[in-house]
Each structure stands twice: as structure tokens, then as C-alpha cells.
Amino acid sequence: MEQLRQFIDSLLCSVRDLLPIVLVVAFFQLVVIQQPFPDLVNVITGCLLVVLGLALFIRGLEQCLFPIGESIAFSFARKANLFWLLLFSFALGFGTTIAEPALTAVADEAARIAASGGVIADHKEALDSYALGLRITVALSVGFAILTGVFRIIKGWPIQYLIVGGYLGVVIMTAFAPPEIIGIAYDSGGVTTSTVTVPLVTALGVGLAESIKGRNPMVDGFGLIAFASLTPMIFVMAYGMIL
Amino acid sequence: MELLLHLLHTGLSTVLDVLPIVTIILGFQVLVLRQQIPNLKRVLIGFVYVLVGLTLFLVGLEEALFPVGKLMAQQLTDPAFISAAAHIPGQPLHWNNYTWVYLFAAAIGFSTTIAEPALIAVAIKANQVSAGAISVWGLRVAVALGVTTGIVLGTFRIITGTPLHYYIITGYVIVLIQTMFAPRMIIALAYDSGGVTTSTVTVPLVAALGLGLASTIPGRSALLDGFGLIAFASLFPIMSVIGYAQLSAWWIKRQQRLQLRDSNDNDR
Description:
The complex is a heterodimer of chains A (243) and B (268).
Chain A: H1 2-32, H2 40-79, H3 82-98, H4 101-116, H5 124-155, H6 159-176, H7 179-191, H8 197-211, H9 217-221, H10 224-242
Chain B: H1 2-33, H2 40-77, H3 79-86, H4 99-114, H5 117-129, H6 136-160, H7 164-181, H8 184-196, H9 202-216, H10 222-226, H11 229-267
């Protein structure tokens, strides 16, 4: 009974989260463009699925992703083995990014654009290898980002110095990178962090900051995602310069 | 029937997406950490929730909102629609003829950010860690306002065709100045909120808007101008979240001052 009530509560929360999009889309469709919805039954079924899915996901977040991230952070802190922790951080960043569908889409798009701009030959092999190269570049950069971010939490460095350094890197690279790659590079920073990775990585960072003496989870625990959205910009521009 | 196939297909690709994460975690858990995860059964059930939830969420978005939203982005950026709305047929279009496009950009930026599951996750965590000082909704609305500003400005940039990096570098300078004056505890969280805002819900709709604009406005290329909206959407939340923290710190101080004055008055 209690469980059922909780579930209904979380369904209501999801409805509230989704309501703005539904209102926006409905307003523009009916009032501005002045057209009826193409397939109302589909739209309503879809909205119900989104609400149910969001409620289940939030449930799983608190029951699975957060606890796992924390438990791993605590185990590593107890083992106090820096090498394995850094290797894990790199693997987590690399592994979650290489398979990220949003990144795959952007990489394919970028390859097509590069081909039409004459940067690479316009046949399938060249396109595929360009896109794969881009994906590996971004995945490496995210692995490197999580590694750096975890190292920062352990050392307790203030995050702004590293971020400012990263920004300078972006600005300097922008001056030298070919113009076609700049938009893609700037965007690739945003698409790398997926819905499953973010909670895991956040819980990992906060867990580490909680279990290391002298670290404050609020000041030191966050920031891993910030690195993961900064380094791809630098790495992708470098990729554009080398090719 | 078609829906069922879609569900199965998306479910399978969700499983494939999380496979690397599961492999890495299991590998380290078994080989390096050699430690039992507490409440293993509960965690596994939670994992099923995550998979099923994400699948339903994605299928629902693809069935219901993305097709309409993408079509809408194309229709709104269609020169025919814009000229009709601006009532000056035959005249060349100026940047201020695009009122509906800006409104759409703002509205879609705000509403998709509110529904973004990754942001909900970070907001819940920040609320727990800060012992309630940061409210889940406060953070989400702050981020959503940042995304709104970012996307509107990004739309303006595509319409006017000014170079992306001027905006981004100016944005960096503003973030740096804000960082110098920001309360220390918010800085890392603010930087994080830039990265989490652009995910499952926001990216497809915003990218459709950007590419739609760049391909319909004369003189813009999808290559040079179509990208970059996501970059705006990940930069501006940093400013709005730091701003939110500064405002709420100021508000608390003000309240305290008022209370102090009240109690002094009462003492008299």
C-alpha cells in the first residue's frame, strides 16, 4: 500500500516535469502554426510512456545508480590504491562515452560535413574512419577528464584553477583550429554526458569527497561532469588540426 | 504492434549502451575491489527500473514529442512562415522578424531542461549534500533559465551569422568574473550544471532548431552555423546557477538583517 502511494507520488512528479514541454508544443502547434496534432493517439500514448519511464528512472536512480557510485567510492577510499582508482576513472569515462548514441550521431554528422567541405574524401570508408576517429578522440578526452577530476578531489585543488586553465586551452585552440571544426568541437562538450553516466559519476565524486578526510562534498565532490564537458572541446579541435 | 517493436528495439539499444558501464563496474568490483555491494538485490531491482524507465522515456519522446517538435522547428524557421508573420512580403528579412522563432527557442529550452533526467539526478544529489540549502526546484529552474537565455542568444547568433567563438569567449570571461565573487560551495556544482543540461531531451529538439535555421536562412551554412546551440546551452547555466547562489545568499543576509532590526525594535 505504502509502495503504491509512493509510486503514484512519483508519477505525479513526472507529470509535473513533463507538463511544460507538452504545453509549449501544444501552444505552438495549435496557436502559432495553427495545425491539429498529426496523430493524437500516438502523442498521448507517448506522453504516458514518458511519464511512466521518468518515474521508474528516478526510482532506479535512488535505488541503484547513486548507491553503486557511492559504494565504489567508499571501497576505493578504504583500499587507498590510487592507481586502480585512476584507472577505474579513466575506464568509466572512456567506456561510457565511446558507446554514447548522441555522440555517434554528432560524429556521423561531422564526418558528412567534413566531406562536403573537402577536408576528407567523400566515400563511405573515409567517412566511417573520420567518425570513428572523432568518437575515440572524444572518449579519450572524457576518460582523461574523469581521471583529472578524481585526482583533483583527492588532492583537494580548487576547481576554478583547472577550469580556467581549460578555458584558456579552448580559447587558444580556437585561434588555430580550422573553422569547420569549431562548432562541432564546442557542441561535443555538451553531448558526452549521458543520463546513466551523470548520476553514477556524480555519486562517485560526492562519495569520494565524503570519505576522504578534509574534503567537503559540496565544495570538492561536484565538478567531474564539468571536466567531462570541457576536455572534448580541446581534444576535438586538436583532432581537426591534425587531420 | 509497431510500438512494441519500437520498445523492443530501444530497450535493446539501452542495454547495449549501459553494457560498457556494467562491464567496467563488475570488472573492478570482482577483480580489484572484491567487495560485496550492500543490498545487492535492491540495487539489481533498481537497475531494472533504470533500464525499463529509460527505454519507456526514450520511446515516448520519439513517439510523441520529437516528431512534432522537429517539424515545428522546421515550420517556424521556414521563410514563408516568417514573412507571413512579419507582414512584409517581398522584403528582405531582418533579425527582428523572427519573434516566433525566439519565443519557440526560449520556451523549448526551458521546458526540455525541466524534464531532463540527468539534471533531476544532480539536483537531488545537490539537495542531499547541501542538507537542503539548495532546493531541487530552485536549481532546476535556475539552470532552465540559463538554458533559455543561452538558446535565445544562440538563435540570434545563427540569424545574424556572427562568429560563435566571440560569444563563447565573452561568456567565459563573465563566468570567470562571477567565479571570483561566488560563494565557494556553489562553484563546482555550477560548472557541473553546464554539462548535464544538454542530454536526452534537449539535444534532439535544439539541434533540429539550429540546423533548421541554418539551412533556411540565406547565407548560412549548416556546417558553420548549424552547430553551436548546444554550446550556448551548456555555458549559460553556469552563469545562472552562480547568480542563483549569489541571490539566495543576499536574500538570506537581508532576511537576517531585517529580523535583527525587528528584534532590536522590539527590545526598545
